[in-house]
Structures
1.
Amino acid sequence: MPKICKVTDKLGRTFEYNEGLEGVIATSSEICFIDGEKGKLLYRGIPIEQLAEHSTFEETSFFLLYGHLPSRDELEAYESRLKSYRPITGEILEFARKLGSLAKPMHLLRTIVSAAGVFDPDADNNSIERNAARAEELIALFPTIVAALQRLQQGKEPIAPNPDLGHAANFLYMLNGEQPNDYAARVFDICLILHAEHGFNASTFTARAVISTLTDMYSAVTAAIGSLKGPLHGGANEGVMHLLNEIGEIERTEEVVLEKLRTKTKIMGFGHRVYKALDPRAKILMQFSEKLAQLTGNEKYYNISKKVEEIMAREVGAKGIYPNVDFFSASVYHYLGIDTSLFTPIFAVSRVSGWTAHVLEQLHNNRLLRPRAVYLGEFDRSYIPMSER
Ligand SMILES: CC(C)(COP(=O)(O)OP(=O)(O)OC[C@H]1O[C@@H](n2cnc3c(N)ncnc32)[C@H](O)[C@@H]1OP(=O)(O)O)[C@@H](O)C(=O)NCCC(=O)NCCS
């Protein structure tokens, strides 16, 4: 149940509001349905389990943007457009080189996407056609930017995209310079599908609020990246990996988790504003974590994750706190050889499809998103000259 706050202002007027906007309906949308009690997630009507089993990230992102599953011709044309948009321009690469060793990946990604708007002379053109093309460009560009940033930080040259590879395989290739095996590429592809969209989460709401002023898509997506970075949102997957490393040995799991609960420290990767049952994405990711643990012969992270899950179910399961999408994605990414600092940027690589779909939907029937706050400050103060303070 939403936490309802009842407050009285200094004029004696009483107001009620849902803390953290929990449960508040801000607008309507046809993109995503979540049943938090039953642990159900649909993208435009199709259950996430079906998309994870049968679709690709390319097809799913087309579906999110345009509202229908593409025909074979439409999908091939879309895939080839994405491939043509993958390379980053010399200006952006040069800018990335200058920033390369200065900051953490999410700060860099946010700044580079903002810079992409600077380098686009048509950035303020909000026509439907231009914004649809821009959404595709951003979806195609994000993996190249994230991989280039990672390599620059490692003192290596960025690797040019490989047009023979699909979206997921190409990203792993641009990171490591090696073509991933088919299983790794498919698991990563499914991870991208699972993270692509999730209704009015904080970053998507941010993107919609920003675009509702009729500014430009780069501004909306830049703001969304800033929102995703937070540890209560997309930043949690990195927090999970730090937790697994902090635990280190399965025998220490009980002690570490109980101490965190005792001190009211949040266990990253657990709990959700909407789900009060197991997040259906976590269920799928758990299976990949188990399989990858067996394939890599390194079961430690999967085993610790399962132990954390067991303890949390026992201690706080009754409060509806279950693993969310971030919990098992941490060990999956680790097993795929991805550096922990890239976990949240990878979330962005996928979620940019949801953000841009929402930006297009918001613009389709726009009304400025502008809520209010109850003013609890003073009413009858007078300005005091500096000399009298
Ligand atoms: C996602 C999240 C912000 C949702 O929070 P929320 O709806 O505001 O819920 P609250 O923070 O008010 O938590 C409600 C209760 O559950 C507890 N709780 C929620 N998430 C918890 C977690 N991850 N670990 C331990 N306790 C948790 C709170 O301590 C609180 O307990 P109380 O009622 O005894 O004080 C929260 O669950 C969280 O911080 N999770 C960890 C970060 C994370 O994984 N984020 C990714 C989300 S996809």
Note: The CA atoms of residues 276 and 319 lie 8 Å apart.
2.
Amino acid sequence: MNGSSDPVNLYDDDVIRDPWPDYERLRELGPVVWMEALGNYAFTQYDTVRNGLRDHETYISSLGAAADDFGCTHQRGNTVASDQPRHTMLREAILPPLLRDNVATLRPHIQSVADDIVAACVRKGSFEAITDLAQPLPLTVVRDLIGLPDFGRENMLKWASAAFDMQGIQNARGQAARPVIAEMKEFIATGVTPETLKPGSWSHRITEMAAHGEIDPEIVPFSIRDYINPSLDTTISAIGHFIYHAGSNPDTWAKLKEDPSLALNAAHEAIRIGTPIRSFSRHTSKPVEIAGHQIPKGARLMMLYASANRDEAVFAQAGQFNIERRNARRHLAFGAGIHMCAGMHLALLEIECLILAMTQQMPAVQVGKPTIAMNNSICAFAKLPVRIQG
Ligand code: HEM
């Protein structure tokens, strides 16, 4: 048996600018495709990606979740790049403030910050969706929750973006990320102590637990990175996708005004169609035969979340933005299985609050031509001009 293969480099600039035709072609080639340019396999279709993510014993994370050896080696030991029992220990340390019920208590505060951010855009009439609207909510709310001292607060976005570049391959973006990540690690090693952190913040809680012997002090830097790296760019990307697609589909605005209870489904649909993280990887713990491929032990497999979320076998007219899509919440943008996103409830709440604020305060919006953000892993707009109508 011979499985299919493909020469495209998913980290080429042209692919990053518009990956959707390549994903469609890869899905047509089969559920598993050998990516010649990367030396990795890719899981391309919804069922294969979901089943692979759920089978954490065959498809392991402890050899790294990036797309090349350097990125994988750099990540080892992180929550996202660990297997049980280490994974359980790391995840349990960071999870309590991110649990659905705890996040729900933040709703009044997040809604009030969202209302103010949107009001400032309304006063301007025309605004830049990413810097004026998508970034300020996570940068205000999440940075306060994490509670780093000033140098950390100011650099979080830069560090997170670099971490997602290194999550891909060592192209120019991956290489440029190295000193930036070294700076972050140095900051965490020297600047993060109970005295420098905001009392009551997530990071403060972690250092206090270590000081009281409730967690192994060795995991503190990993926990802090868990809060810094995935908490900003992902949500900012999703908000950008919502604004772009809602602005390009005028009936969306009217539907949300008429029925605000659609806001959460609209948040999921924006996350599905945009898929903020294009892919993470796994490695095989044993030889696997799948879709005509004899995959050896230790091979790297890219889980193409973004391709899975456009699989027509699951999402009819997958390229269309439809906030009433009945199965929008089945998307794999948060992953699946034991590594499923730890921060999804917070991200969804932030996006939902912004959607409610926007659709209540803005009669409708018109979007201009977006500029794509060039990042190895994050699928996002760098710029998106918006004009408020009415
Ligand atoms: C729309 C926003 C977000 C998206 C699309 C997203 C996506 C993801 C994905 C795909 C994974 C799974 C990685 C894997 O399968 O290996 C993940 C894991 C994770 N996410 Fe998120 N994320 C978002 C927001 C957040 C936020 C706001 C936080 C923190 C405050 C966060 C923290 C984490 C952590 C700690 C993990 C590692 C979980 C583990 O390995 O057990 N994420 N995220």
Note: The first strand starts at residue 4 and ends at 6.
3.
Amino acid sequence: MLRSARDPQTGRGMRSDELRDELINLFLAGHETTAQALAWTFYFLATHPDCAGRARAESVQNLSGAAGTAEQYGRLVYLRRAIDESLRLMPPIFMVSRTPVADEPLGGFVMPEGSLVVISPYVMHRHPMYWDAPDRFDPDRFAPERAMARPRYAYFPFGGGPRLCLGAHLALSEMVVVVARVLQKFHLALAPDGRVVPEAALILRPKHGIRVHVRRVQRP
Ligand code: HEM
């Protein structure tokens, strides 16, 4: 598709180096982010068995062990809230930056033209002005009535504005499918010898991975 894409104004296709850059970007932006978000989601579910139980019951009820359709996955409302909450506490892209094209006043300061302005979802997602008990994992924060009461940019794991993540819907769909299918089959418990240490690399990731004990769910 990228090879046959043409600029609508000039009719020009991409040079091979442009094509390579686009592909590398898609892999970089789309793979590690979603993988680490899944790792953190499994960490939170392994340490909050009550939440995992609710998400499992919902998955079993709606999918009954089958591969599932998009419509069925769309009904996994609580599981989706658990993913949103995991992206709040551990946003894989924990900071983004912008460069003002002109001096820009903000809250009594001036952001000078050409400067580097760093904006952190991690900091905003735990800001006590917008979140009660900010460090607590509580998927029901994303119940519609509670989510609507917050300002738009209290939560932005996928960024915002014209450079909003291109793959947000794909990432969320993929995560709902993976988490639902794992929970239907397995109980996860954090391995006692596993050390969970966040590491602020390019992506916010668990430095030593997330080690869990996996036990098969017994069907009645
Ligand atoms: C949980 C998974 C993901 C997270 C947390 C995430 C987060 C983000 C964030 C915060 C930005 C904005 C960066 C900025 O404002 O400077 C962004 C941009 C982007 N993301 Fe994602 N992303 C995820 C998955 C994906 C996937 C699956 C794809 C593609 C398959 C993707 C493709 C992109 C692209 C192409 C951009 C640049 C958009 C632009 O500048 O116009 N992302 N992502």
Note: The CA atoms of residues 42 and 124 lie 23 Å apart.
4.
Amino acid sequence: MGELCVRSVLVTGANRGLGLGLVQHLLGLPKPPQWVFATCRDPKGQRAQVRPGWEAVAVLGDRSAQCQGGDRCSKAALNMLTKCQSLAYKEHGILCVTLHPGWVQTDMGGSSESFKPPLTIDASVQGMLKVLSSLSEKETGTFLDWEGKMLPW
Ligand SMILES: NC(=O)c1ccc[n+]([C@@H]2O[C@H](COP(=O)([O-])OP(=O)(O)OC[C@H]3O[C@@H](n4cnc5c(N)ncnc54)[C@H](OP(=O)(O)O)[C@@H]3O)[C@@H](O)[C@H]2O)c1
């Protein structure tokens, strides 16, 4: 596996759950990205705190608003977006995949003892970063899980 080496990353929903986990893991990489844009829909909300080492940048409000539009698409629409972008950007060497994080202990995934998802946020995010670090042209336009297994659309 190669080391994940990226310059800029945009994360939506970065105030909690998988989005927050992703930002924390990216910043903890041996070679962290130069820029991690951590966005959320309510930057003034209780759960949108700026953490140590992070910097609040006002312009992210507008940027974040546009991305939340994408977040609100249905999953089927996001799948189609991946397919279309993978074709449009292939010639520029830009890879596009959809990742399934697994069933994860977040507010959305649930965390009660009787119905506990098997994966922690850390395990899921580490897995997804490992998958991203080893992506190649043959995977562009595919649907992969957090362990890199190809899933049917
Ligand atoms: N957890 C799982 O097992 C699992 C499995 C498969 C896929 N996923 C996908 O992984 C992604 C992250 O999920 P999670 O488990 O981390 O969930 P989570 O802990 O509930 O966090 C959800 C995040 O999405 C934001 N959000 C929710 N509705 C939004 C909207 N309409 N517009 C903009 N932002 C919105 C929330 O912002 P607020 O704090 O402002 O509400 C929060 O930052 C989701 O797309 C989910 O479908 C999760």
Note: The beta strands are 8-11, 35-38, 98-100, 143-145, 150-151.
